[in-house]
Write a structure and sequence with these properties.
This protein has 392 residues and is of the alpha+beta class. It folds into 3 domains: 114 residues, Butyryl-Coa Dehydrogenase, subunit A, domain 1 (Orthogonal Bundle), CATH 1.10.540.10; 109 residues, Butyryl-CoA Dehydrogenase, subunit A, domain 2; 139 residues, Butyryl-CoA Dehydrogenase, subunit A, domain 3 (Up-down Bundle), CATH 1.20.140. The chain is 49% helix and 15% strand. The strands form 3 sheets. A 4-stranded mixed sheet has the order 1-4-5-8. α2 crosses α3, α5 runs antiparallel to α6 and α10 runs antiparallel to α12. The longest helix is centred in the C-terminal third of the chain and has 29 residues. The radius of gyration is 22 Å and the shape is globular. The mean pLDDT is 86.
């Protein structure tokens, strides 16, 4: 495995850093953080990326992507995450990283022409319809039905944890089209216009107080059959492909490194026992443990990316990235809560530095509890590793 960058790759890294310095302004970041201006500002960011030709780093050039090597994608993702431009909950994930690759890999030419350009220009936002009430990580047990009637599928059921469904123009859904065989069979992949009559979006306010999640109901929703991706009853194959590639970049190493650097600065400012918290031996030990784990995770990620660059399809190794990445992120959030101390109990949006940090820390901690659940629970990842890697 070669983990060093070539001179050309270092030039590219500097190009990304220059772009960030020019366009990722504090004003834009604040508007994205404000729910009243979120979609407008996020779309502005995405259009800036598209103007640069960077909206879809992983897409082939023929569909409007960059055609970058895996290494360049790694550099891009690392620099963007380090600066706080991109994160795991970005709305562009659903269009660019999830449904887009499914469409250009398994969709027909008409579907590619219809949907891919508008994903790139951010004229259409997407959300994901996988999990259901009572059927989370066990996707194969889904019950939302789609029955073919003439030229339309009639969809009935519900999806849950549909992130940003209240902003989305389209949703990509796994639906049950046949119940006669194994539960992994008889599943189809449908693209559904969110403006279709019969769709109802019910807000779910998280423990962090934010509205990012929803339950989406389908009541006799008529979907043109031309919105079926690939073959009917073969959607499980497309879903697995999507999830494997989703987990390839779900370790969030760069976000954790950024969080760790922030934590160290805060520990220099906070005092305990007559000295900066950063000088406390127990605190130093906790930080060192996380740094070691994070370094090991980064090299594991690089090994997987190096194999992908050589043409190897990511498999169960991506589950390792997801598992350890979420565990490290939660460990960092735990320490941040300790640093925030009693300030973490203050819901205050004033300019007090302690309050501002603690308020954000509490919100991130609460939302972060879900990192071991979304993208497939950690328990499921352990089962995949046990079966596919260890042979149990």
């Amino acid at each position: 495995m070669d983990t060093t960058f070539t001179p050309e790759e270092r030039v590219f890294r500097d190009e990304v850093r220059t772009w960030i310095k020019r366009y990722w302004t504090e004003e834009l970041a604040n508007r994205i953080a404000d729910k009243s201006t979120f979609k407008e500002a996020q779309t502005e960011l995405q259009k800036l990326l598209n103007d640069q030709g960077w909206m879809a780093p992983g897409w082939p050039e023929e569909y409007g992507g960059t055609g970058w090597s895996v290494t360049r994608r790694y550099i891009y993702n690392t620099e963007m995450a380090r600066a706080g431009v991109l994160g795991p909950a970005d709305p562009m994930v659903f269009g660019v990283s999830m449904v887009g690759p499914v469409i250009y890999t398994y969709g027909n030419e008409e579907q590619k022409k219809r949907f891919l350009p508008k994903i790139l220009t951010s004229d259409e936002w997407w959300c994901q319809g996988y999990s259901e009430p009572g059927s989370g990580s066990d996707l194969a047990s889904l019950k939302t039905k789609a029955e073919l009637e003439g030229d339309h599928y009639v969809v009935n059921g519900a999806k849950i944890w549909t992130t940003y469904a209240h902003y989305a123009d389209w949703i990509f859904c796994l639906v049950r089209t046949d119940s006669s065989g194994r539960k992994q069979e008889g599943i189809s992949f449908l693209l559904i216009d969110m403006k279709t009559p019969g769709i109802k979006v019910n807000p779910i306010i998280g423990i962090d107080g934010r509205h990012t999640l929803n339950e989406t109901e389908f009541n006799n929703v008529r979907v043109p059959k031309e919105n079926l991706i690939g073959e009917q009853d073969k959607g499980w194959t497309y879903a697995k492909s999507l999830l494997t590639h989703e987990r390839l970049y779900v370790a969030n190493v760069s976000q954790s490194k950024r969080s760790l650097a922030e934590l160290k600065k805060l520990a220099e400012r906070e005092w305990a026992g007559g000295q900066p918290l950063a000088a406390d031996p127990y605190f130093q030990q906790r930080i060192s443990d996380i740094e070691i784990d994070l370094m090991a995770l980064e090299f594991t990620e690089l090994r997987v990316l190096s194999a992908a660059a050589a043409g190897k399809e990511p498999g169960a190794e991506s589950s390792v990235l997801k598992l350890r990445g979420s565990e490290i992120a939660k460990a960092l959030q735990d320490i941040k809560m300790d640093v925030a101390g009693y300030y973490a109990g203050i819901d205050d949006a004033d300019n007090n530095a302690n309050h501002s940090f603690a308020n954000k820390t509490r919100i991130d901690f609460m939302y972060g509890r879900a990192s071991s659940v979304y993208g497939g629970t950690n328990e499921i990842q352990k089962n995949i590793i046990a079966k596919a890697v260890l042979g149990f």
